[in-house]
Amino acid sequence: MIVIDAASPVPPFEQLRAQLARQIHDRTLAVGTRLPTIRRLAADLGLAVNTVGRAYRELEEAGLIETRGAAGSYVSAAGEQARERAGRAAAEYAAVIASIGLDTDEAIRIVRAALTGGTAVSPSA
Fold it and tell me: Tell me, what's the pLDDT at 100?
């Protein structure tokens, strides 16, 4: 279920995009699930067609959905493939960390810094 909060400072397209992305990531929306048409979802949620269209475009650019012309928009297998790729990369990283003897806390600090564009800082002694 999608809920748009009109009082939220977050734009409606972003609320919709984030909720659909979350449902795809947590597998509430399975690969191959057909999404409502843009017009139908806009009417159901009381949003402008362009608002829903923008959310769908951003989900498509992220590889989470694919549009098949007149056949509609579907949850893409690419999202699941990306999750599997991330899992393989995490396993490889864990093996490197184990081989060089870093502890878990330091490994997580390194990942957090990489994800946020910061620099990993060693804890104070």
Answer: 95
